[in-house]
Design brief:
Strands 18, 19, 20, 21, 22, 23, 24 and 25 form an eight-stranded antiparallel beta sheet that branches. The chain has a five-stranded mixed beta sheet with strand order 9-8-7-6-32, with no helix packed on it. Strands 1-28-27-26 form a four-stranded antiparallel beta sheet, with no helix packed on it. The protein starts with a helix and ends with a strand. The protein is about 10% helix and about 40% strand.
Length: about 500
């Protein structure tokens, strides 16, 4: 970053850091470092989680600059780097990583995006612990400053299509045609030529297909691409999320989606260089900026937001990473959701091992409490994993929902999970099958939803289909005895 922009950002930080009112008397979360020596290497950027070897345990891929990429295989809470033997230890600056089963064989594959002149790679998972780059033969070995990569089913035909955002050229969309890919960027209208960084897909208007929000940098306006039957229209100005007219030193970086206020509609948080923004979804008609009203206003170099209900109270909390070149421990934030407003609760152990880019909430040990994985590409940073020390009775007030299709495949990114108090329409919590976030990453993990003390709940999973939104229901689920994960097959 040029020196003048660093100075502007530092001045902005000093004058407009978040200083909202103290929240109610809630205890700060307790986290403990996991294998800190293993995760101490600096340079981490994207981090994405999936069970790549189908042993029932989540594994982590971390992309680096300045050292080879790592793939951590989990063995009952212990991690080991197996990237070299798996064939994914590229020593090239990596900015994007997305897991997705593109060929529907039951083994998650990995798309890795680089910067500079190195072609991106699509690593096919052979099911025996090894990966083979098939990007050249599939026409997916693109070159560019790659940012968010997402595997999604934009046309609702049952297989995963591929979206790639770029910082230096128009974004691209490839339709999956039986394991082969067709470039549909032009005909779809999705080729945003602005300087894109973050992106996320979700059904903004409840019409049964996935729409796309794109966070753009260097003063460019953001995009909100409404999916009209496979043709995309940018409605960001009408929906109030374009943030047009910014100076070149400001712009958007990362984006995260959750129903923060429990009204049933998915809302949007955008991390910015400059003031970040929380947008409430006004019943599928527009977004309303509620940043100040929710007490999450701050202005600095924010990079990556991630929602996660770390205390299982049914309300998603918000982690936001910050980054400024050559500044150690540039401020991060952890906002506790008090029921539509927020207060800051970042614990010291996390502040001392903070993020610059990657942020992921995952329950890696399957105990019912969301753990936290961060990456930091500062010279003295690391890519640390924190175990959530939530007391076991509280940790068990949650469900882990693994959303798959009728054939048991992970082809449902963007599906929505909601939990209601049994035999009522009182919404307890909700979540979204990952479509991108955590800094240019995509994971294949179960959706964590809190039950917040309810003895029995009804689970509803809404997925997209050719005939609109389809809801699959599981009634009278007992969180104490439900399997982890609870597998839900959708049409």
């Amino acid at each position: 970053m040029p020196k003048d922009l660093r100075s502007i950002a530092a001045l902005t930080l000093a004058s407009t850091m978040w200083s909202g009112p103290p929240g109610p008397e809630t205890s700060a979360p307790a986290f403990e470092l996991v294998q800190p020596a293993l995760f101490a290497a600096p340079g981490g950027q994207p981090n994405a989680w999936a069970d790549f070897d189908n042993d029932g345990q989540l594994d982590e891929f971390v992309g680096f600059r300045g050292r080879p990429n790592r793939l951590y295989r989990q063995d009952h809470g212990r991690f080991e780097d197996v990237a070299s033997e798996a064939g994914v230890a590229d020593n090239i600056e990596t900015r994007a990583a997305a897991w997705g089963d593109y060929d529907g064989d039951g083994h998650v594959d990995l798309y890795v995006g680089f910067v500079g002149g190195t072609p991106n790679k699509l690593y096919h998972n052979d099911g025996h612990g090894h990966f083979i780059d098939v990007a050249p033969e599939l026409g997916l070995n693109l070159i560019g400053v790659t940012r968010q990569v997402s595997w999604i089913d934009y046309d609702n035909d049952g297989d995963l299509d591929l979206f790639i955002a770029f910082r230096d050229r128009p974004n691209r969309l490839f339709r999956n045609d039986g394991g082969r890919f067709t470039d549909v960027t032009s005909e779809s209208g999705i080729g945003d030529p602005r300087k894109s960084v973050g992106a996320v897909w979700f059904d903004i208007d409840g019409d049964g297909d996935l729409d796309l929000f794109v966070a753009n940098q260097e003063g460019d306006a953001n995009g909100l691409f409404r999916n009209d039957g496979g043709r995309f229209v940018d409605v960001a100005p009408e929906w109030g999320v374009d943030e047009a007219g910014r100076r070149p030193e400001f712009g958007s970086v990362g984006v995260a989606v959750a129903d923060f206020n429990g009204d049933g509609w998915l809302d949007l948080f955008v991390a910015n260089y400059g003031p970040s923004a929380l947008y409430r979804n006004d019943h599928g008609r527009r977004f309303v900026d509620v940043t100040r009203a929710a007490h999450v206003f701050f202005s600095q170099h924010a990079t990556t937001p991630a929602w996660g209900d770390y205390d299982n109270d049914g309300r998603p909390d918000l982690y936001v990473a910050g980054f400024l070149a050559n500044v150690t421990h540039y401020p991060d934030h952890l906002f506790h959701n008090d029921g539509g407003t927020f207060h800051e609760v970042l614990p010291t152990v996390v502040n001392d091992h903070d993020a610059s880019h990657g942020v992921q909430w995952i329950d890696f040990d399957n105990d019912g409490a969301l753990d936290l994985a961060l990456t930091n590409n500062d010279r003295g940073g690391g890519h640390f994993l924190f175990k959530n020390m939530l007391p076991p009775p509280r940790a068990r007030q949650s469900l882990s929902i693994d959303v798959v299709d009728a054939q048991g495949r992970h082809t449902k990114p963007g599906a929505e999970v909601r939990v209601y108090a049994a035999a009522t329409r009182r919404l307890v919590s909700s979540g979204l099958v990952d479509t991108g976030g955590g800094y240019c990453s995509q994971s294949v993990v179960p959706v964590h939803v809190a039950t917040a003390g309810a003895a029995r709940v009804d689970v509803e999973v809404t997925s997209m289909s050719r005939t609109g939104r389809k809801t699959t229901k599981l009634s009278n689920v007992n969180p104490a005895t439900a399997p982890r994960p609870l597998i839900v097959r959708t049409p």
